[in-house]
Write a structure and sequence with these properties.
The complex is a heterodimer.
Chain A: E1 2-11, E2 14-24, E3 29-33, H1 40-47, E4 55-60, E5 63-64, H2 70-76, E6 78-80, H3 93-100, H4 108-112, H5 116-135, H6 151-164, E7 169-173, H7 181-198, E8 201-205, H8 209-215, E9 218-223, E10 226-231, H9 233-238, H10 240-247
Parallel strand pairs in A: 3-8, 3-9, 6-7, 7-8
Antiparallel strand pairs in A: 1-2, 1-4, 4-5, 9-10
Helix pairs in contact in A: 3-6
Chain B: H1 5-22, H2 29-54, H3 62-79, H4 86-109, H5 117-136, H6 156-175, H7 177-187, H8 189-194, H9 199-225, H10 235-248, H11 253-269, H12 277-295
Helix pairs in contact in B: 1-6, 2-6, 2-9, 2-10, 2-11, 3-4, 3-5, 3-9, 4-9, 6-7, 10-11, 10-12
The chains are: A alpha/beta, B mainly alpha.
Chain lengths: 258, 305
């Protein structure tokens, strides 16, 4: 479904991503880990069209994504959440989800006059909103402003907003950052549920090893923009390259090179 | 029936205004004039508010759109369709003014794809001034002398009928799923793009809507005062409109309507005080800026439009 071939991204003198190559299929869960500055978020920005790769191709369902505007890529079915929560400050929980459904909503003129046809499809959309919010446990808060939710629920709402887009590939950028251990357990269950139910592919960037190891049958490791490992959790945990990337080489007098 | 309650409400309100229009000859001309100014200001301010309050784009050039509407309508009324009945000519003029200024709104909306905040405000300000200077030098439009003997067609029904129509349509738009996109663009463009919202199209649409409101407001104004000059649509007019919107609390249509009413009626009540009006504007703006966080309590409840 997603094929990335020899993808590279260079900012001036810095090679943020280099020679990235991998494929993933429908319904896969893929974890991406790596030390700070390894290029994980850059990788997401490439996938969602925020940056255009300076080398190589990104292919999604047979379509090359290079150079497409971010909103077009979102409409094709790659939707992300953000590392720092980015919700709409002035919108209620319900309206946030409705905003994510705009690509399927009636257009400008039928909305402007509130024509019967548009009212009918609005009603369908509203029932979809209800199902989604109930499923993610946000229904009780639907009239609250999004920013007044607790942090864990805001994260959850971001995932709900992404799901409202009906994505085929969901990108989660550090979904568990700043969460309490119980919130993390809930999040893990939620991700597993939605992955099963919607049958979508998921890529997760995460620093919490327990979450990644528990959730992802396949993990990629990035370091300084290069993919240094690709495999199941056990092989990753024992891979000497990965260990040295996180802990440094076991050489004497090498402390300033971490 | 419940689904169409706003449609029905609009219809009833229009009938009410139509009935009121029959009383027009018996209303004191002074009060009538103030009421019509109020209605026109409401149309102008609601249009600007849609742009600033709901889409987060600022404009200091709305007098420019207003003058485009005023001049295009006046020009049509003076020179074309002279054999047709007056109400139809007025309708055509209003439609034409909305169309022309909508086109200019689209043109001005294009740079707004790249500009934000202060830069956009300065660009729109420049636009307003350019329009004024261009009209001043167009002899067809009377140049600096202005256009006179425009038929006095503006009355209760056109002004308040269009106001009701405008409020109703904005209400439909904002409460629809499509309309949530304007708010999403205002709050976070990056996140809006990430969920498939065509941010640039939304911004341009907002500019066009706002310009159409301003153009129609200008056309109504031209057919009320019957004599227009470029200087009537100067920078101060744009500031006046922006002040009305900011005072009302951006994002809050009811607040804007209240502030328009106060800022239109108050100078009339305090006739002797009128020359200090700009002082009051500036002062009240400063006060609002300082206490704005505390005014949020009447912002953004279930909005009227």
């Amino acid at each position: 479904m997603l094929r990335i071939s020899h993808c590279g991204m260079r900012f001036g003198g810095i090679q943020a991503i280099q020679g990235l190559c991998f494929e993933m299929g429908q319904g896969d869960i893929l974890g991406v880990i790596g030390p700070n500055g390894a290029g994980k978020t850059t990788f997401f920005n490439l996938l969602t069209g925020v940056y255009v790769p300076t080398a190589g191709d990104i292919c999604f369902q047979g379509k090359v994504l290079n150079g497409l505007a971010p909103f077009r890529i979102a409409q094709l079915g790659i939707v992300r959440t953000f590392q720092n929560v980015r919700l709409f400050a002035g919108l209620s929980v319900e309206d946030t989800i409705r905003a994510a459904m705009i690509p399927k909503a009636p257009g400008f003129f039928s909305s402007l006059f509130s024509l019967p046809a548009s009212q009918k499809s609005e009603a369908v959309l509203l029932s979809e909103v209800e199902i989604l919010l109930k499923q993610l446990g946000l229904w009780a808060f639907r009239h609250q402003l999004a920013v007044t939710l607790t942090y864990g629920l805001q994260r959850c709402l971001e995932i709900a907003r992404a799901l409202a887009n009906r994505p085929k590939l969901l990108l989660l950028d550090e979904p568990a950052a700043g969460m309490t251990p119980t919130e993390k357990m809930d999040l893990m269950a939620t991700i597993r549920d939605i992955q099963k139910q919607f049958g979508i592919a998921v890529i997760i960037i995460e620093h919490d090893m327990r979450l990644v190891m528990g959730l992802c049958p396949r993990i990629l490791v990035l370091d300084h923009g290069v993919m240094i490992a690709d495999g199941d959790p056990n092989s990753i945990a024992t891979n000497p390259h990965v260990i040295s990337a996180y802990l440094g080489e076991p050489e004497e007098g090498d402390f300033d090179d971490a | 029936m419940k689904k169409y309650k706003v449609h029905i409400g609009m219809g009833l309100a229009l009938i009410g205004v139509g009935a009121l229009a029959f009383l027009q000859p018996y209303i004191d001309p002074y009060y009538l004039q103030v009421a019509l100014y109020l209605g026109i200001n409401l149309i102008l301010a609601l249009g600007l508010h849609f742009l600033c309050g709901y889409t987060g784009q600022f404009s200091l050039g709305h007098a420019g759109f207003m003058s485009i509407g005023a001049y295009s309508a006046a020009f049509l009324s003076l020179h074309f369709f002279c054999a047709w009945p007056d109400p139809i000519r007025f309708m055509l003029s209003l439609l034409f003014s909305g169309f022309v200024s909508g086109c200019f709104g689209w043109l001005l909306g294009l740079p707004s794809l790249r500009l934000k905040g202060d830069y956009l405000a300065v660009t729109t300000l420049g636009f307003g001034e350019i329009i004024r200077v261009v009209i001043q030098n167009l002899d067809v439009l009377g140049g600096a002398r202005g256009l006179g003997s425009i038929p006095k067609w503006t009355g209760i029904f056109p002004v308040f009928g269009l106001l009701i129509l405008g409020i109703g349509l904005l209400h439909f738009l904002i409460s629809s799923t499509y309309g949530k996109g304007f708010l999403a663009v205002r709050d976070d463009e990056v996140a809006a793009q990430a969920i498939g919202i065509h941010v640039t199209r939304y911004k341009v649409v907002a500019f066009v809507i706002s310009a159409v409101f301003a153009g129609i407001g200008g056309a109504l104004y031209a057919h009320l005062v019957t004599y227009i000059t470029p200087s009537q649509f100067g920078f101060m007019k744009s500031i006046e409109l922006a002040a009305m919107v900011i005072l009302g609390g951006t994002g809050n249509a009811v607040g804007v309507m209240i502030s328009v009413t106060v800022l239109t009626v108050l100078p009339e009540l305090l006739r002797g005080f009128a020359q200090y009006r700009m002082v009051v504007y500036a002062l009240s703006l400063v006060v609002v800026m300082i206490f704005r966080p505390k005014m949020r309590f009447w912002e953004r409840k279930k909005s009227l439009c």
